[in-house]
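To make the argument concrete, we let one protein speak, a sequence paired with a row of structure tokens, as a model reads it:
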Amino acid sequence: RDLLHIRRQQLRLQQDHAPAEQVLMYQKGQIIGQGGCGAVFLGMNVTNGTLIAIKQVLGGKEHDVESLDREIQMLRELRHPHIVQYLGTNRTASSLTVLLEFVPGGSLASLLRKFGAFHECVIQVYLAQILRGLEYLHGFEVVHGDIKPENILVTSTGLIKVTDFGASFKLSSASSSSAQCQFMGTTLYMAPEAVRGRAKSST
């Protein structure tokens, strides 16, 4: 317990010294993904040419906007090699946009469709990185809430990035909105107790 407490203190110290959010100038390109609450576009940082991902809800439903807002609040507090990097937000009267690190390799789901079942050594490499990302999140008492192949991205060098924090919540929060988030996610990947409607543990 003492070691866990020290680790959490170290993580919070890293969080306190996270760089301030900067305004990012970007150009939106072609669509690269479509989800239930919006679309993801390829973008370019017009100041340095870096490619980024642009996740956008256009005139969205209240639930969709709340989900993206929740993702923004979580991601702006997190900084880790295995968590997709948050770059900024653009909010207008008709849209809500979050700017994220672009991960060119795509998701584990897309790689499984392209290559079929992974070799055991690849599974070990990927799983170790996913667990390191989850360990970091749990150090902040953050539960992702929707871990599945579609929400695990892979860079061209095999680096894992956990993404899509729309269903995430903090265990330390007792708000009604956080309680509702505990029962979001994808049914086939949810813990049995969550599917049965009981409180979800940090898994």
Summary: The first strand starts at residue 26 and ends at 35. The radius of gyration is 17 Å.
